[in-house]
Amino acid sequence: MSSRELVVLGTAGAVPTRHRNHNGYLLRWDGQGFLFDPGEGTQRQMAHAGVSATDVHWLCVTHFHGDHCLGVPGVVQRIARDKVRHPVQAVFPASGESYWRNLRHAAAFADTDVITEHPVTGDHAAIGPLTARRLSHPVESYGYRLQEPAGRRILPDRLAALGIRGPEVGELQRGGSVRGVTLAQCSVPRPGQSAAFIMDTRLCDAVFELAAGTDLLIIESTFLSGEAAFAKEYGHLTAHQAGLVAAEARTRHLVLTHFSERYGFADEPAFLDEVRQSYDGPVTLARDLMTVPVPKRRRHLTVP
Question: Which residues form the active site (predicted)?
């Protein structure tokens, strides 16, 4: 199976800094690349990270504030210039379709026909393997969740005990039974892996729904709690709130990002301290060009 990992291309909030580029996140997932919120400079960050246009299969925009979408023209034109042949699915809020059109056709270039558009409407939408939920921000914004379907893990010792071997194993997996032996007798449930991407928002039900049970949660933490009132006014989360979400959701790995320009690397311990008030799992404070693996799949150790 191909790797599942997050490649961080940018981690700044509204204003980039010397050390943080505007947003950009490529989630590699079984040979598919999900590029979320390409901000200004994303194409160059991709080059630094060793990411090419052919790695992009999904282009997902949460909302149309500049730090989340001004990299779209460069990415689209690079897809065209490099003659990417596979389909690229573009997902974005339908209310911002005029902004999408302007970004999609921001300059003269030899266009491509591989991009298929999926404008999102309503409080909840499903597009292929993605689920989108409307968040709480001054402009319409959506969070995204990537969910692998649940399956079953075959137990070789149980197969051997029941005399199932060779081609019969495949028949059992496809049909659910062979020679009176059922798949349930030879396997245990295997939960599907999941990742959620939650950018600019206040706390709301959709945040918790997107995050619930995730293996990897990438979430904004624009401010520390001292700016909680300011964060709420402008539709953002604090590090403390991100920790609360991760704890309630029982996420397995929390990634904080989208840091206000008022904070530097020296402030990272304060972000971690706020998260630790409620969440005790693995935490990554994202930095540009970092790679974060999706946690290994949960395994059942006992047979029901």
Answer: 67
Q: Which domain holds residue 169?
A: 152-188
Active site residue 37: no
**Which residue in the block uniquely carries the two structure tokens 């990415």?**
75
In a domain, 208, yes or no: yes
Return left, alpha or beta for 171; rule: phi > 0 is left, psi -120 to 50 is alpha, else beta.
alpha
pLDDT (tens digit per residue) in 94-148: 999 999 999 999 999 999 999 999 999 999 999 999 999 999 999 999 999 999 9
163 found inside a domain: yes
Q: Which positions make up the binding site for Zn(2+)?
A: 63, 65, 67-68, 137, 200, 258
* Domain-terminating residue out of 162, 188, 214: 188
Identify the band that residue 181 occupies on the pLDDT scale cut at 50, 70 and 90. confident
